[in-house]
Specification:
Strand content: 15-25%
Enzyme class: hydrolase
Distance between the termini: 59 Å
Helix content: 10-25%
Largest sheet: 8 strands, parallel, barrel
EC number: 3.2.1.68
Strand order of the largest sheet: 17-18-23-24-25-26-27-28
Number of helices: 19
GO molecular function: isoamylase activity
Catalytic activity: Hydrolysis of (1->6)-alpha-D-glucosidic branch linkages in glycogen, amylopectin and their beta-limit dextrins
Protein name: isoamylase
Length: 786
């Protein structure tokens, strides 16, 4: 959930969800229970026969029983449902509940809002500290589970216990509700049908075929941000199961051809795409939560991204996600997950109760003294990340995805929330001992956040990619300042803003643009490296690359919010005319600008990130906040990609290949004067003045000898004098002012010699003409005296 300068309006949830929750009442399923167990609000664990203190006689409750399963005490760890000893151990943390019941639900009963069997847990046998646990043996085929908890329902004290709710286990490895993406559930067409957790079995073993972590050096990554459903949902994808993990796996060869070696998956944890389901009269379809930044279960993959239809859909989702990872690894592509550990789909006090709020609300969420929800996420609630229980939950979750699902790293949405102090923050709560003067207000940023400390020093997680979106909706902006322990990288939002402004010809950005080309040492020098900067021009939030050069103003009417959502400050330029129907000269300029942006991304130190579809020029019609569209706005157009295959796609592919070949474009450290020289219109005379729109540099490269790169973002053409290199001549490799295929001149390009002759008289004079709004890359070639 990106934000230009952390403007909360750029976060698609903020205004929309707060409005939603104030107008919408979430249905609570009315279950027809079989053999209901009596639920007590008493906090006592035993039935007292004689209450006289000196003559207390205690009669133990009989142990829990079941018609279908053998029941025993179980163990308090690990949390969740765990197969062991020919049975399943269930364990869940709930510090403020007074009773707990495990609900077993067959798949057929789930569809009818019925509970198959309930087993009320005995506090004397099935509770250790604040952990409820039970061990069951029996036939779990097609059996799901959930919990009922009882206790206070007192929102002003932070408690929402209600035994009528069947709750999801926070540690559930898969969650089952509806079968098909975007389709209402049940006969009552409920947007929030009852959900239940998958019971694991040993039958779900997956053949990894020896898959191991790729452990690619981060400096060598080219990241591709993508949406699982959007990547293959369009009919032109021609895959067997469009919009699924399997569909993505089938299209991985496209990414390999492009040169991508790391995919960043937009949220793949279980979420409810019907969360704000409503008719959209503008497009004639329904608004849904397409992006998925509203998590229901952090351990569960999004089940409706599976190709399965009904039976064993949860197990299939797990295995198909694993297959996607395995197939990516076979092609040398790492997999990073976008995780939303800053809030959940339960929203504010008007939101639904399906898991964390009903299990232990005051533990999992940041609460004000009277029970109100802090809203640093802009989505109604804030995950209480630095609470001891919650931070262990987060570490357990991340470890699971690394060890069990083989993912290679994480991008943390609104990661700055993880640096905020938890509810009831004090030294005793966090560290186990009092420190005088350590009391902090809930949500205050802290310099050494315990959860980030745990992640950074965890023996499993320290070796994976950790990327923070270093801001949140509460105004905290930490780009360049995120607590990092030497291992965290950041989405560099400042890179995006500076590059957008410089390329479109805004005065005053030449020096800042040069900093970006060096890997932003102004932000990351001193404890970090260039590759800690994740450089991007476009991401899922905001304009696509094609729209960035087509629209000055957003066009979000299709979102149904009267164009009030989405960011207004986009640093975009339409190249002289607004929209698609423009003159030929404007279209040509737009093509140059798209190439200029891509060149800047590929020649900058740091890690480049590309947004899905930008490699062929995908347009969303000027909509910069397409969170709610399950349609062509968000679908990758494979037919359009084929049209651009020998044009812009070719350019992108060759630039990525060039970056990979150049030793100097993925440095371990920031470049110095020994390797880098800045130039202006004349060699070694850079112009950093306020009105300068020209930046050029040469870079010594052990593979290419030396490369020369220049950007002219003025509206005027210029003649550049090149640095002298005795015995060598500069030859053009990239010139964005040329039509394809001469925008990138490779050695095997038909007509290459003819094209080179057109430059020869300039190059013999050690000069090069640059059109307005163009960029070039030149390479050294030995002079052949013959």
């Amino acid at each position: 959930m990106d934000a230009l300068k952390c403007s909360s309006t750029f976060l698609h949830h903020t205004k929309h969800l707060n409005t939603l929750f104030s107008n919408y009442t979430f249905p609570t399923p009315n279950f027809n229970r079989r053999s209901p167990q009596p639920l007590s609000l008493s906090a006592k664990d035993k039935r007292i026969i004689n209450t006289e203190p000196e003559n207390v006689a205690v009669v133990e409750k009989p142990p829990p029983t079941s018609h279908r399963f053998l029941v025993s005490n179980g163990l308090p760890s690990p949390f969740g449902a765990t197969v062991r000893d020919n049975g399943v151990n269930f364990s869940v943390y709930s510090s403020n509940s007074v009773s707990a019941t495990i609900c077993l639900i067959s798949l057929s009963d789930l569809r009818q809002n019925k509970v198959t069997e309930e087993i009320q847990l005995d506090p004397s046998r099935n509770r250790t500290g604040h952990v409820w646990h039970v061990f069951l043996k029996g036939d779990f085929k097609d059996i799901l589970y959930g919990y009922r908890f009882d206790g206070k329902f007192s929102p002003e004290e932070g408690h929402y216990y209600d035994s009528s709710n069947i709750l999801l286990d926070p540690y559930a490895k898969a969650i089952v509700s509806r079968d098909e993406f975007g389709v209402l559930g049940g006969d009552d067409e409920n947007c929030w049908p009852q959900m239940a957790c998958m019971v694991p079995t040993l039958d779900e073993e997956f053949d990894w075929e020896g898959d191991m972590p790729l452990k690619l050096s981060q400096k060598d990554l080219v990241i591709y941000e993508m949406h699982v459903r959007g990547f293959t949902r369009h009919e032109s994808s021609n895959v067997e199961f469009p919009g699924t993990y399997q569909g993505v796996a089938e299209k991985l060869d496209h990414l390999q051809e492009l040169g991508i070696n790391c995919i960043e998956l937009m949220p793949c944890h279980e979420f409810n795409e019907l969360e704000y389901y409503s008719y959209n009269p503008i497009l004639g379809d329904h608004r849904v939560n397409f992006w998925g930044y509203s998590t229901i279960g952090f351990f569960s993959p999004m089940v409706r991204y599976s190709s399965a239809s009904s039976r064993n859909i949860a197990g299939r989702a797990i295995n198909e996600f694993k297959t996607l990872v395995k197939e990516a690894h076979k092609r040398g592509i790492e997999v990073i997950m976008d995780v939303v550990l800053n809030h959940t789909a339960e929203g504010n006090e008007k939101g639904p109760i399906f898991s964390f709020r009903g299990v232990d609300n005051s533990v999992y969420y940041m609460l004000a003294p009277k029970g109100e929800f802090y809203n640093y996420s802009g989505c109604g609630n804030t995950f209480n990340c630095n609470h001891p229980v919650v931070r262990q939950f987060i570490v357990d979750c991340l470890r699971y995805w690394v060890t069990e699902m083989h993912v290679d790293g994480f991008r943390f949405d609104l990661g700055s929330i993880m640096s905020r102090s938890s509810s009831l923050w004090d030294a005793a709560n966090v560290y186990g001992a009092d420190v005088e003067g350590d009391l902090l207000t809930t949500g205050t940023p802290v310099s050494c956040p315990p959860v980030l400390d745990m992640i950074s020093n965890d023996p499993v997680l320290r070796g994976v990619k950790l990327i923070a979106e270093a801001w949140d909706a509460g105004g905290l902006y930490q780009v360049g300042m995120f607590p990092h322990w030497g291992v965290w990288s950041e989405w560099n939002g400042k890179f995006r803003d500076v590059v957008r402004n410089f390329i479109k010809g805004t005065d005053g950005f030449s020096g800042a643009f040069a900093e970006c080309l060096c890997g932003s040492p102004n932000l990351y020098q001193g404890g970090r490296k260039p590759w800690n900067s994740i450089n991007f021009v476009c991401a899922h939030d905001g304009f696509t690359l094609a729209d960035l050069v087509t629209y000055n103003n957003k066009n979000n009417l299709a979102n149904g919010e009267e164009n009030n959502d989405g960011e207004n400050h986009n640093c975009s330029w339409n190249c002289g005319e607004e929209g698609d129907f423009v003159s030929i000269s404007v279209k040509r300029l737009r093509k140059r600008q798209m190439r200029n942006f891509f060149v800047s991304l590929m020649v900058a130190q740091g890690v480049p990130m590309i947004y899905m579809g930008d490699e062929y020029g995908h347009t969303k019609g000027g909509n910069n906040n397409t969170y709610c569209h399950d349609n062509y706005l968000n679908y990758f157009r494979w037919d359009k990609k084929e049209e651009a295959h020998d044009d812009y796609f070719r350019f992108c592919r060759l630039l990525i290949k060039f970056r990979d070949e150049c030793e100097s474009l993925g440095l371990d450290d920031f470049p110095t004067a020994k390797r880098l020289q800045w130039h202006g219109i004349a060699p070694e005379t850079p112009d950093w003045s306020e009105t300068s729109r020209f930046v050029a540099f040469s870079l010594v490269d052990s593979v290419k000898r030396e490369i020369y790169v220049a950007f002219n973002t003025s509206h005027l053409a210029t003649l550049v004098t090149l640095p002298e290199r005795p015995g060598y001549r500069w030859e053009p490799f990239v010139d964005t002012s040329k039509p394809s295929p001469f925008d990138c001149i490779t050695h095997d390009l038909p007509g290459r010699e003819t094209a080179m002759k057109q430059y020869r008289h300039f190059l013999d004079a050690n000069m090069y003409p640059m059109l307005s709004y163009s960029s070039i890359i030149l390479l050294l070639s030995p002079i052949d005296d013959s």
